[in-house]
Write a structure and sequence with these properties.
Layout (H helix, E strand, L loop, with lengths): L2 E2 L2 H21 L5 E7 L3 H16 L3 E7 L5 H13 L5 E4 L9 H7 L11 H8 L8 H13 L7 E5 L6 H10 L3 E5 L6 H6 L3 E4 L17 E4 L3 E4 L5 E4 L4 H7 L2 E2 L6 H20 L2
Parallel strand pairs: 1-11, 2-3, 2-4, 5-6, 5-7, 7-8, 8-11
Antiparallel strand pairs: 9-10
The structure holds 5,10-Methenyltetrahydrofolate.
Length: 286
Amino acid sequence: MTTIIDGKAAAAALRLRVADETAALKQAGITPGLAVVLVGEDPASQVYVRSKARMTVEVGMASFEHKLPVDTSEAELLALVAMLNADDAVDGILVQLPLPAQIDSDKVLRAIDPAKDVDGFHPINVGLVATGSGGIAPCTPYGAMLLIQSVQPRLDGLHAVIVGRSNIVGKPMAQLLLQQNCTVTIAHSRTRDLPDVVRGADIVVAAVGRPEMIRGDWIKPGAIVIDVGINRIATDDGKSRLVGDVAYAEAAAQAEAITPVPGGVGPMTIACLLRNTVEAARQRRA
Ligand SMILES: Nc1nc(=O)c2c([nH]1)NC[C@@H]1CN(c3ccc(C(=O)N[C@@H](CCC(=O)O)C(=O)O)cc3)C=[N+]21
């Protein structure tokens, strides 16, 4: 029987733990605070920002939302980041990506105080995670790791194949899997014989952003399949639905365990953001 990994339930459980830790910090007079910055009015981004804010409040933390117009200049955004860096009530800062074209996102990410960088995108945190010296891990790979280890705590010697080499998922995912003693392959759009590479995987992490690209006959029987993709596709009745980067039904028939979309990695991303924020509060205000 294939295990369908319930990311929604795992995320709810993690949020309960974060709520307990938040309550303990509040006893000590510290209310953890998360600032989320959204530039522009992309509808999908607005939905995510709203659900982040709601869950932040639900676990007992303070939520600070900053919505800026789409024509905000880089200097204006950097000024807001500087203000949030200096604000003692703010423990975590998330600048929603992607940013409009007139803003250099690398420059903005480097301006965030690494101690408040709850996305784990600042080069300081990237380096600390890569060397295994602590640091804040990016929420999506971190959440994916928790889901993998919920079905298989010991990963020593397993071959993990990550499809996708982004800075926000593929590369940090590789670091976290290496830390658990996996043999790691990062595959991408130029990889030769991709299906055969994936067929060698005990753990498949799909993070390419191409709907249902990874087929069932690419999956080794008994593999763990983690689908990071969230793609909205049109359906025949003129509506739309969310699908991952994995052809779910086909892959589920082969896999030992698989994450669905929606209800897999997505909810864990937000729960890990809250975890990173409470941890940042603890470290910074210790
Ligand atoms: N600085 C930054 N940090 C981010 O972490 C970040 C970002 N920018 N930009 C956008 C992406 C996207 N993202 C998601 C989080 C949760 C779900 C999620 O909970 N998805 C639900 C479904 C949501 C739906 O129904 O649309 C699920 O998969 O079950 C999805 C996507 C975080 N992002």
